[in-house]
Design goal:
Layout lengths: L8 H17 L3 E5 L29 H4 L2 H6 L1 H11 L9 H11 L3 E6 L5 H5 L4 E3 L2 E8 L5 E2 L1 H6 L13 E5 L8 H13 L2 E5 L20 E4 L12 E3 L3 H8 L6 H60 L17
Parallel strand pairs: 1-2, 1-7, 2-3, 7-8, 8-9
Antiparallel strand pairs: 4-5, 4-6
Length: 335
């Protein structure tokens, strides 16, 4: 819920300036987002007054019960009826929040988006570093043979969609209540949070686990909360803004990097690259010189001995043999 202090223009502007500065001073930003990121694209959230959990499900069951594993297995017809009406929005398009995050990623500052949404809007906007904790409605698979299907196939089927190959039920690749999250996705999210120098949490009430606990892995307090309603992290965060996620991010993320900054970054990268190349070349040259010197040393040491031995052999071979002369017989005296 928006607080009275957030409605004061000067306070709001001060907070936006603070966020701009935090973004400018950070080089490894991680964004953790929930349903509130996509509400401006026409997709309702879950827990607000007009959210999915507080509206008529159209069936005799509560929405929160329908999107559970056991319910899906026992009542697939009711599940898909609700699913197609309330959880699929194929015509939704990325809003200002998604586009601002794309800019932040292209500027080299945003290293990961951890999303609890299943709408694929981050990828559609152009983001590359997206970790989908709860899966995506755009991926579907047969529960029997594993054959994959797109969203169009599921939407086109009446009632429960079945596999055209084996007849098994085709279910969306999303995480329902009572199901485990993908361990790799959770591990990747935690690793990203541990390395970040700024964590922006937006559009989530922080009541769904384990995402609600990710902030505990930080070794600093550089946390920004952007959400219309309060969360348990509001007083622990460095900055809290109760406002629309799209408006805040669009205002605070630069539309473009200034030429001076871009040139400085490019120069720094070039300098680092040149230094690395020079160091590598120096090491290679030193290694070659050392090898050459070692080889020369071996040659110098071995040559004299080899040469001396050869010359001795030649001299011995060239020495003329002295023939023994026959002893002369004494001349006979003439008598």
């Amino acid at each position: 819920m928006e607080t009275r202090i957030d409605r004061l223009g000067s306070v709001r502007e001060d907070k936006l300036r603070q966020l701009k500065q935090l973004i400018a001073d950070s080089e490894n930003i991680v964004f953790l987002g929930g349903a509130g990121v996509s509400t401006e694209s026409g997709i309702p959230d879950f827990r607000s007054g007009t959210g999915i959990y507080n509206t008529d499900s159209g069936v005799k069951y509560r929405p929160i019960d329908i999107i559970a594993h056991d319910f899906f297995m026992e009542h697939p017809e009711d599940f898909f009826d609700f699913y197609k009406r309330k959880l699929i929005y194929p015509d939704a398009r990325p809003n200002k929040a998604h586009k601002a995050l794309v800019r932040l990623e292209r500027q080299g500052k945003l290293k990961a988006i951890i999303t609890q949404n299943i709408d694929n809007l981050h990828q559609e906007a152009g983001s590359k570093c997206v970790i989908e904790l709860h899966g995506s409605v755009f991926r579907n698979y047969c529960m029997e043979c594993g054959k994959k299907y797109d969203l169009e196939y599921v939407v086109a089927q009446e009632g429960v969609p079945h596999c055209e190959k084996c007849g098994g039920i085709v279910r969306p690749d999303i995480v329902l209540y009572e199901e485990n999250l993908n361990h790799k996705d959770v591990d990747d999210a935690i690793k990203a949070v541990k390395k970040c120098d700024l964590l922006i949490i937006a559009g989530t009430s922080l009541t769904v686990y384990p995402a609600a606990t990710f902030a505990q892995f930080l070794k600093h307090d550089r946390i920004v909360i952007i959400n219309k309603s309060s969360t348990y992290m509001d007083l622990k965060a460095l900055l809290t803004i109760h406002d629309n996620v799209g408006d805040v991010l669009d205002n605070c993320v630069p539309k473009r990097v200034s030429r001076a900054k871009a040139a400085t970054k490019s120069k720094a990268k070039t300098k680092t690259s040149t230094k690395a190349k020079t160091t590598a070349a120096g090491k290679t040259a030193a290694a070659k010189t050392k090898t050459s010197a070692k080889s020369a040393s071996k040659t110098v040491k071995s040559t004299p001995a080899s040469k001396s031995k050869t010359e001795t052999k030649v001299k011995v071979a060239a020495k003329p043999k002295t023939a023994k002369e026959p002893a002369k017989k004494p001349a006979k005296s003439k008598s």
